[in-house]
Design a protein that fits this description.
CATH topology of chain A: Cytochrome Bc1 Complex, Chain D, domain 2
CATH superfamily of chain B: Cytochrome c-like domain
GO molecular function (chain B): electron transfer activity; heme binding; metal ion binding
Largest interface: A-B, 29 and 29 residues
Largest sheet of chain B: none
Helix content of chain A: 25-40%
Structural class of chain B: mainly alpha
Organism (chain B): Allosediminivita pacifica
Keywords (chain B): Heme, Iron, Metal-binding, Signal
Oligomer: heterodimer
Pfam family, one (chain B): Cytochrom_C
Largest sheet of chain A: 3 strands, mixed
Strand content of chain B: under 5%
CATH topology of chain B: Cytochrome Bc1 Complex, Chain D, domain 2
Protein name (chain B): Sulfur-oxidizing protein SoxX
CATH architecture of chain B: Orthogonal Bundle
């Protein structure tokens, strides 16, 4: 009996080192935006996950802390930079984003939460990055941003901030269905010489450590993400690219139809979680 | 005369020691994934095996498995802890698991370390660029034998 208790105590002591699972902290930003960081999984995940969990829960207390206050969140500096870009006239049409959309606060509330989404006129699924570039090339006569460039990440962050705290609500039916199915198939495909699927790490093993990395569910609600590692905002497709590369596979190009499909599917796995961008990660 | 005999014996031993390794595509797996014969034809070296197990650029087994006796930080927990695996697994079973664990655990996330073809979008190491099959196996025949020898030392004694 005594022995049992002691073993249990040792197990408890050992626990923090391999913390295991998501923690129970709650995320409130600036003391006012209450984030939903755990939610019942959307219906389409039945049998796969019961609960969807923000990547925030899997980071260290110190990293988590940085996301609770815009003065500590270095990602907000890049949002400020994007305000300047928003108001800058560019291209042959001599227009800025503001010429047509006024302020981001007025025009972009809720936009991030529903992307990627179907664009009726173009007849295609568009990511937020693709929509930004469509406005630049088709409406401004300006050069597109590089798909994973700093300018793109910053602009995505500025638009995303207008949806902070709102639940991700990406449509998966209707005209996007085929693309969504393609993304789903990719999610479960075991790529590369290591033969690992997104699901191998982010569905089967979230909460576990793989070497020093605490695996999350690989959600996209926090993107673009400020990483302490490279001190800038990082885009969804740059992260996908790295994750596929790490399976010793030939990766896909950012902005490719494959990654657009994958983003739609992965985003839909986060339906119900709050938009957190720009979130902070190690 | 005597001398020649000894030399020949030594030569024979040496040639056995440099036996041709079994090719990754010719390994014969038993019904439950075990591999009876040595892949390299040589005995494994447990010290080398420990290094292969712990080193990122080699087996990197510690990314998924813990072994208490190892002085390696950040051991992973995707796979089971292997502290006593030498107690309940035979060398043939361990060889099969390390060479291609999917023959023992069909859907396992554990990579196949002695496999060269049949991948989806195989890449050139961690470059993200395409590579032509056959790929070099993740570990050599001898490294696998070394790992088996190391794993057999993991006992409750």
């Amino acid at each position: 009996m005594k022995r049992m208790a002691l073993t249990a105590a040792i197990a408890l002591l050992a626990a923090p080192a391999l913390a295991g699972g998501a923690d129970d902290d709650t995320l409130v930003v600036n003391g006012e935006i209450e984030m939903t960081t755990k939610a019942d999984a959307p219906d389409h995940l039945e049998g796969a996950l019961d609960q969807v969990i923000s990547g925030w829960h899997f980071r260290s207390d110190e990293t988590q802390q940085l996301q609770t206050d815009d003065f500590e969140n270095q990602g907000m500096i890049f949002v400020d930079a994007a305000y300047d870009a928003w108001n800058t006239v560019e291209g042959t049409e001599e227009k800025s984003c503001a010429s047509c959309h006024d302020s981001p606060e007025d025009s972009m509330e809720g936009v991030r939460a529903v992307y990627p989404k179907w664009n009726e006129e173009a007849g295609e699924v568009r990511t937020l990055a693709q929509q930004i570039n469509a406005c630049r090339t088709e409406r401004m006569g300006a050069e597109p941003y590089g798909y994973t460039s700093g300018e793109m990440a910053n602009m995505e962050a500025l638009i995303s901030v207008q949806s902070r705290g709102m639940p991700m609500n990406v449509a998966i039916d209707g005209p996007v269905r085929e693309t969504w199915e393609q993304g789903k198939e990719m999610y479960y495909t075991r790529y590369g010489q290591l033969e690992l699927a997104c699901a191998s790490c982010h569905e089967q093993n979230y909460g576990n450590y793989i070497r020093a990395d605490h695996l999350s569910q690989g959600q996209t609600n926090g993107f673009p993400v400020y990483r302490l590692k490279n001190a800038k905002l990082n885009t969804t497709h740059a992260r996908f690219k790295g994750c596929v590369r790490d399976t010793r596979a030939e990766t896909f190009q950012p902005g490719s139809p494959e990654f657009v499909a994958l983003e739609l599917y992965v985003a839909s796995r986060g339906n119900g979680l709050s938009v957190e961008a720009p979130s902070v990660r190690n | 005369m005597r001398r020649t005999a000894i030399c020949t014996a030594a030569l024979l031993a040496a040639s056995a020691a440099t036996a041709e390794p079994v090719e990754p595509t010719s390994v014969s797996y038993g019904e439950y994934g075990a591999v009876e014969t040595s892949l390299s034809g040589n005995p494994g070296d447990p010290d080398r095996g420990r290094e292969v197990f712990s080193t990122k650029s080699m087996g990197n087994c510690v990314s998924c498995h813990q072994v208490s006796g190892l002085d390696v930080p950040f051991q992973g927990e995707v796979g089971p802890m292997l502290d006593f695996v030498g107690e309940y697994r035979t060398p043939a079973e361990l060889r099969g698991i390390v060479a291609n664990a999917k023959n023992t655990f069909p859907e396992t996330v554990m990579p196949s370390f002695y496999k060269t073809t049949g991948f989806i979008r195989p890449g050139d190491g961690f470059t993200g660029k395409a590579a032509e099959e056959p790929l070099p196996p993740l570990l050599s025949a001898q490294e696998i034998e070394d790992l088996v020898a190391f794993l057999m030392t993991l006992k409750d004694t």
